[in-house]
Specification:
This protein is mainly alpha-helical and about 375 residues long. The protein is built from 18 helices and no strands. The chain has one domain.
C-alpha cells in the first residue's frame, strides 16, 4: 500500500503540520493573513504599556500612538502587515469597548448624586455644540471634529475608540484626535489642582470638576489625587458614570449617519439606491460592541462580575485600547496629518476651555442660585 505521507496530499499535510501555527492557519485562513500585522501592533502595544507605567501621566494609549507613528515613519510596514494592522485598529478596538462595560455598575451613577448629572449632561451638550460651530468655522472636517468633540466631552481615547467604527473615521483622524486630547489632558493635570485651590473648591467639588472636565481616566486620577484622596474617589465615580454617555452618543451618531446615507440614496431597506427609506429600526443602529458593552455593564451591576476581576479587566481593556491605537499609529500617514494643519489642535483647545468653564459654571450656579 502506498504511504499517504508520500503522496502529494500527504506530503502537504506533513509539511503543514511541521509549521508552527499551521493547523490554526489552515482552519482559519484569515488568521494567517492577519497574524504578522497583529503581532506587530501587539509588540508596539507591549512597549507602550511599559512606557506608560514609567510615565503614568502620559499612559500607554498615547505612547502607543506615538510609537506606532514612529515605526510607520522609520520602518514603513509593507502590504503583508496591512490586514493585521487594520484588524487591530478596528476589531481589537471594538473588543476593548466591550471589556470597558465590565468595569461599570449602573448603581454607581445613582450614588454620585443627582447633582453630578446636570454637570455631565450640560458639559457634553456645550462641548458638542461648540465642536460643531467652532469646528465648522475653523474648517475642520466633520469626522475629525466629531472625534475631538466626543473625546473632550466624554472620556478621551475610550470615547474615540467607541465612535470610530460608528462613523468610519480614518486612521489619521483618530491619531490626530487622540493626540489633541492628550495635549489638553496634560494641561489639565498641571493646572487644575492649582485652579481648584485658588477657587477654594472642596474635595467633592473638585472631584466633580476633574471627573467632568478631564478626559482620560489616567489624567482624571492624576489631577484628582494631587488635590486629595476624597477628590480622587469622587472623580473616579463621576468619570465612570460619564463613560455611560458613550451609548446614547453612539446611537445618535449611528442614526444620523444612516439618515444621511438614506437621504443620499446609498442605503435603503430594499437595497435599491433611490428607493424611499423605511422607518429606522433601533436594532440596526446598535453595533455588536455596544450590545456587548451594555450586557457586561448589566452583569456587573447584578454583582456577577467578582470584584477581584475588576482590576484585571481594567488592565485588559487599557491594553486592548493600547494595541488598537498602536495599529492606528502604524497606519498613519504623516503627510495626511500635515495637511490637516493647526486647526484641529486649536479646536481641541477651544473645547477644553468650554468644558472646563461649563463644569465650573454649573457648580457655581447650583451653589449660589
Amino acid at each position: 500500500m502506498k504511504d499517504a505521507s508520500l503522496s502529494p496530499s500527504g506530503t502537504t499535510r506533513l509539511a503543514t503540520a511541521r509549521r508552527p501555527g499551521a493547523a490554526l492557519a489552515a482552519r482559519f485562513p484569515g488568521f494567517a493573513v492577519r497574524l504578522p500585522g497583529l503581532a506587530l501592533a501587539a509588540g508596539v502595544g507591549l512597549v507602550a504599556t511599559a512606557l506608560g507605567r514609567l510615565v503614568p501621566v502620559v499612559g500607554g494609549p498615547v505612547s502607543a500612538i506615538v510609537l506606532g507613528v514612529l515605526v510607520a515613519v522609520m520602518v514603513r510596514p509593507g502590504d503583508r502587515m496591512r490586514p493585521g494592522i487594520a484588524f487591530a485598529g478596528r476589531g481589537v478596538l471594538q473588543a476593548a469597548v466591550v471589556v470597558l462595560g465590565a468595569q461599570l455598575s449602573l448603581g454607581q451613577v445613582l450614588r454620585v448624586g443627582v447633582g453630578s448629572l446636570p454637570v455631565m449632561i450640560l458639559t457634553l451638550t456645550a462641548c458638542l455644540a461648540a465642536a460643531y460651530g467652532i469646528g465648522r468655522r475653523l474648517g475642520v472636517v466633520r469626522d475629525l471634529r466629531t472625534l475631538i468633540g466626543v473625546g473632550t466631552g466624554i472620556c478621551g481615547a475610550s470615547a474615540i475608540a467607541a465612535v470610530t467604527p460608528v462613523i468610519g473615521a480614518a486612521e489619521a483622524e483618530v491619531a490626530y484626535a487622540v493626540s489633541t486630547i492628550f495635549v489638553f489632558n496634560i494641561a489639565a493635570v498641571l493646572t487644575f489642582p492649582a485652579l481648584g485651590h485658588l477657587l477654594g473648591m472642596g474635595q467633592h467639588a473638585f472631584g466633580l470638576f476633574a471627573g467632568t472636565a478631564v478626559n482620560d481616566m489616567s489624567s482624571v486620577v492624576a489631577a484628582a489625587t494631587t488635590y486629595g484622596g476624597s477628590a480622587a474617589d469622587y472623580a473616579v465615580v463621576v468619570k465612570l458614570a460619564r463613560t455611560l454617555l458613550i451609548i446614547p452618543i453612539c446611537l445618535g451618531l449611528a442614526a444620523l449617519g444612516r439618515r444621511r446615507a438614506r437621504t443620499a440614496g446609498t442605503v435603503t431597506d430594499v437595497g435599491v439606491p433611490g428607493a424611499l427609506p423605511g422607518p429606522v429600526r433601533v436594532g440596526r443602529l446598535v453595533p455588536w460592541f455596544l450590545t456587548g458593552f451594555l450586557v457586561l455593564a448589566a452583569v456587573n451591576t447584578a454583582g456577577l462580575v467578582p470584584s477581584a476581576a475588576h482590576g484585571p479587566l481594567s488592565t485588559l481593556s487599557v491594553f486592548l485600547i493600547t494595541v488598537a491605537l498602536s495599529a492606528i499609529g502604524l497606519s498613519t500617514e504623516p503627510s495626511r496629518l500635515r495637511r490637516s494643519g493647526p486647526a484641529p489642535l486649536l479646536l481641541g483647545g477651544c473645547l477644553w476651555l468650554v468644558v472646563s468653564a461649563t463644569s465650573l459654571g454649573v457648580q457655581f450656579l447650583a451653589r449660589y442660585v
